[in-house]
UniProtKB/TrEMBL annotation:
Top-rank lineage group of the source organism: Archaea
Sequence similarity: Belongs to the class IV-like SAM-binding methyltransferase superfamily. RNA methyltransferase TrmH family.
This protein's GO CC annotations: cytosol
Example of a GO MF term: RNA binding
Keyword line: Methyltransferase, S-adenosyl-L-methionine, Transferase
Domain tRNA/rRNA methyltransferase SpoU type: 4-153
Protein name (Swiss-Prot/TrEMBL): tRNA/rRNA methyltransferase SpoU type domain-containing protein
Species this chain originates from: Methanofervidicoccus abyssi
GO biological process: tRNA nucleoside ribose methylation
Amino acid sequence: MEPVVILVNPKYSGNVGAIARCMKNFEVRELRIVGDRGILDKEAYIRSVHAKDILDRAVFYNSLEEAIEDIDLVVGTSGIVSGDRNLKRVPITPKELAEKHLGLKGKMGLVFGREDDGLTNRELDLCDLFLSIPTSPEYPVMNLSHAVAVILYELYTLKLEKPFPVKMREASKLEKDTLIKLFEDFVDANENIPEYRKELCKVIFKRIISRAFISGKEANTLMCAFRSKKV
Ligand SMILES: C[S@@+](CC[C@H](N)C(=O)[O-])C[C@H]1O[C@@H](n2cnc3c(N)ncnc32)[C@H](O)[C@@H]1O
């Protein structure tokens, strides 16, 4: 997959410049920014060094929804994980993402949050996967540009190795979206699921489907199950 770096309301222009620099180091071309063009000031260009072209080509959006509209796999990032206590924040590592994305087609959006507040829960809910770089529990939160560098490094080094042959056709975005929509309709129509649990069920299902990198055949088989289910 083709990585696309998506920054949500970055506050420090120096960070944006440093991110452009490491994107060039690891051959990632596309930078999207949710926020204002004013972030690309002199400091950003100084810190980008030989990656000014990446800043020149950066595309700006008003919301994360708009920025991910054409993205096939959306990966939200954070240093804060909570395992079983919060099922929406069960993470994969950059290495796992790199291993699983090999050989797949389409665009992979890597979404990074604000330097002070990170990504909101609502923004994380828009993501297909939740990724966290393993770090010390005493101080898990990294500098924004360092976090981008670590993730792009993992993707880059695996790309350099011989890609694994893909044995099964992976599910297309349309197939995954259809399966997720069928599941959501199933949840909405199911009176046995308490209302307060429905939204969580939907997000967890989306995350599981994305973590599993399912094949087209698997997606279509599961679609049948939800279509035929009477509730
Ligand atoms: C300085 S951090 C934001 C800190 C904020 N207090 C929080 O709780 O997320 C800025 C961004 O860097 C990325 N980041 C920082 N540490 C990370 C880690 N260990 N794993 C993955 N991404 C990380 C995330 O995108 C995060 O939103």
